[in-house]
Amino acid sequence: MKPLLTVKSITKRFTESPVVKDVSFQVYPGEIFALLGASGCGKTTTLRLIAGFERAETGTIIMGDRVLVDKDTFIPPEAREIGLVFQDYALFPDKNVLKNAAFGLSRKIPKKERNAIALENLKRVGIAHLQERMPHHISGGEQQRVALARSLVTQPKLLLLDEPFSSLDTDLRQVTREEVRELLKEFGISVVLVTHDQEEALSFADRVAVMNNGSIEQIGTPEDVYRKPKTEYVASFLGKTNIIETSINDGYADTPFGTIKIESPDKTNVLLSIRPEYFNLIPHPSDKNESVSGRIIAREFKGHDLTYTVQVKGKHYFVQTDYKQHYRVGDEVSLKLTEADVILAKDG
User: Fold this and answer.
1) CA dist 37 to 191, 212, 234, 237, 332, Å?
2) Collapsed DSSP state (helix, strand, coil) of residue 227
3) Is 190 in contact with 5 (CB distance < 8 Å)?
4) Given this model, what pLDDT does residue 30 score?
5) What whole-number distance in Å separates Cα of residue 99 and Cα of residue 310?
6) Is 289 exposed, middle or buried (0-12, 13-18, 19+ CB in 10 A)?
7) C-beta of residue 54 within 8 angstroms of C-beta of residue 45
8) Helix, strand or coil for residue 315?
């Protein structure tokens, strides 16, 4: 399949140090692609370069067969056929929902026709009944749908979402995220999502690019970047993990929890990322050939599960259990490793 968007080797700096460094990726028709990273990693600047609000110093940006940016070309934002939903939705407080949705349409189009187009898009996102309401009289999730409808009225080929769910409370964020994803998939629109929220990226996107210090460290499906991170940063940023330095010999790796089979060629000085859910906890010391004794020094209750910090031979490890397994700080436990199939390159 031919990509809709191709970003190739773009670099941008505001000072001596580049904010975006040699970033490349592709987005395919109908795909939701997430740029995930901590604040200041360059993800929002990358989005602004795609939108045309900033100009890359080097590199190219291509939409289909059309060059948007290269050393000789710079297509202005309004001519790129790209929609954008801002983090704060940027709705006009003095305009009702219908007028907000119609705002992106050319004034050359008669008002009656503009309103009809806007109303049709409000219907698409399920809020046509709110057309006369003012923004402050609707919920955060409804405001986001207005912003989405406004971005769709111009029939963009690509939609950019800049931290679109960050202003919503936890429950509404999850529900709205699911609803918006379903709508975008129904419309078949290609999307680039910028977020710092790991759960959001993993649940919302088809593929994820993890950014760090202006560069992309890894691109893959949510399952791949979580279970098979290529760097220590990717492993750690995507949730709690235990990093173990070891070697692989004849398909096996030695760990503080015993020897475990690894699906990888033999290597020396590699890192294993062992997720907390890769352990089983047993409430009392058992066969030392199968498990390792430890002591619980901290617990984090999260309702549906618990994360324990377990001290083993002077070092601390994260272990996750379901909500039924209750241990107290100070309890002696046996810790058994069930899998560790993730291989990392050593950073640097």
Assistant:
1) 17, 6, 9, 8, 37
2) helix
3) yes
4) 96
5) 57
6) exposed
7) yes
8) strand
Mean pLDDT of 127-135: 93
Tokens of residue 120, six digits: 């049709």
Alpha carbon separation from 16 to 13, 19, 155 (Å, rounded): 7, 9, 38
Q: What is the pLDDT of residues 208-258, one digit of tens each?
A: 999 999 999 999 999 999 999 999 999 999 989 999 998 889 888 888 888
Residue 285 has pLDDT above 80, yes or no: no
Question: What interhelical angle do 140-152 and 111-124 show, nearest 10?
Answer: 130
How far apart (Å, rounded) are the C-alpha atoms in residues 281 and 267?
Answer: 29
Candidates 44, 42, 70; CA nearest to 56 is 70
Please tell me the pTM assigned to this model: 0.88
Cα Rg, the chain, nearest whole Å: 24
pLDDT for residue 348: 46
Contact present, 26 and 3 (Cβ < 8 Å): yes
Query: From the DSSP assignment, how many helices (H) and strands (E) are in the chain?
Result: 8, 21
Lookup result for tokens 């929902």:
97
Query: Sign of the CA dihedral 144, 147, 153, 158?
Result: negative
Would the pLDDT of 16 be above 50? Answer: yes
Give me the count of residues in the chain: 348
* Residues ≥6 apart with Cβ < 8 Å to 63: 4, 5, 80, 81, 82, 157, 158
Q: Which contiguous run of DSSP H or E holds residue 47? A: helix 43-51
